[in-house]
Amino acid sequence: MANFIRRLNEIPREELFASGHGLCAGCGIPPMVKIALKAVDGPKTVVNATGCLEVATTLYPNTAWRVPWVHNAFENAAATASGIEAALRALKRKRGWKDYKIIVFGGDGGTFDIGLQSLSGALERGHKFIYVCYDNEAYMNTGIQRSGATPIGAATTTSPAGRVIPGKPENKKNLLDIVLAHRVPYAATLNSAYPIDMWNKFAKASEYLDKGIGPIFFHYYSPCPVGWRMDSALSIEVARLAVQTRIWPLYEVEEGKIKINVMVRRPKPIEEYLKLQGRFRHLLKPENRHILEKIKEYVELNWNRLIRLSQLDSIY
Amino acid sequence: MVKWPNKWMELPIGGVINVPATSVDVKTGTWRSHRPVVNLDKCIKCLMCWVSCPDNSIIRLDDDYVDVDYYHCKGCGICANVCPTDAIDMVEEGGI
Ligand SMILES: Cc1ncc(C[n+]2csc(CCOP(=O)(O)OP(=O)(O)O)c2C)c(N)n1
Ligand code: SF4
Ligand code: SF4
């Protein structure tokens, strides 16, 4: 039975994701993983696409996991999860195995770009698992290369801000829209500054899986102090600002019905968000005003579209 | 602590790690340049630091007050930053 919470002290103490891992100081990934493993109840197994989370938690001969965990290549986490789910279903039928829940973690490079086709296949076939894309907005583990998730204007090592380009020239793609095109039963965005909301979404996902309903997709905002060139102490603060500036709307979609979880009536200025991060600092210079204006336009367009869509009974 | 095998033939098949959470022996506390110090007089037990710490280094005590695990704490400063009552100070290491 899923366990919804209203206060943080209702979260059990026992951690299934251990300390001693090699993720950077201030990394935004663990606060989500800790909650995911606890809020999704019962026996479970984790599938991890190559990326920071994968390499930094399994530095041989050590592991930071207290649940079964499987490594796979960069592009096929969803395919591996599909295979595990199908195998477990067969073992249940033939040998009376119990139910296991499958949670997949993939970075934005592994989900938006290289793993997109295996994800699409798995969503289309309707495998019963939870897929979480932790989005740190670049290929961080290999040295901050731009991805389809890198926002416009962000400086990365392959989109450096300078005289030629003002950071990445293209907009971030809307992954959740692509996922929703598969008509998944439940999808949502997550943010570490809103841990109760995040817990309850995982608890709901767990309940869906108990009823045999899936796949479920989460898009998690994952601050990366190293790649974003910011103070490690600011991880959660920047995550909160992302929501409060409407850059990262918190919403969920159940059977096509959109619900905005944090209604941002008076958004904070986007500059407040940008100025904390070295990857955006050049945007505050006068010669890059046009990019700043583009970002503001894009954020407003996205937000207004979301509001309009949330007024429909279903977008499916 | 898990030992490195002497020969590759001693590795488990598939390179499987068959003991959970062995990383807890790794002393990531050596990464730290500043240490969080909790002032319990100001703590309101909201547990924001506890859920936010990437390294499980905020110890949640039985009464929901908090302490720090300096063996693992990397000194990122998130706990001090999220604390609504400024009950956590980041103090430079080596000063004491
Ligand atoms: C087919 C393939 N190409 C390239 C790599 C090298 N590689 C490993 S992790 C990684 C980046 C992962 O980026 P992302 O998915 O965003 O996760 P993050 O590192 O940001 O956590 C790359 C390029 C690989 N492992 N496999
Ligand atoms: S590079 Fe970024 S995402 Fe990767 S471990 Fe470091 S902080 Fe986390
Ligand atoms: S400084 Fe960082 S690692 Fe240390 S206890 Fe605080 S949040 Fe955890």
Describe what this molecule looks like in 3D.
Chain A is of the alpha/beta class. In chain A, 35% of the residues lie in helices and 13% in strands. Chain A has a single domain (18-310), classed as 3-Layer(aba) Sandwich (Rossmann fold). An 8-stranded mixed β-sheet of chain A has the order 2-1-3-4-6-5-7-8, with helices on both faces. The longest helix of chain A has 22 residues, at 289-310. By secondary structure, chain B is an alpha+beta fold. Helices cover 10% and strands 17% of the residues of chain B. In chain B, strands 1-4 form a two-stranded antiparallel sheet. A two-stranded antiparallel sheet of chain B has the order 2-3. In chain B, strand 2 and strand 3 form a beta hairpin. Chain B is elongated and about 55 Å long. The model of chain B has no long low-confidence stretch (mean pLDDT 93). Chains A and B meet through helix 1 and helix 8 of A and helix 1 and helix 2 of B. Bound molecules: thiamine diphosphate and iron/sulfur cluster (SF4) (2 copies).
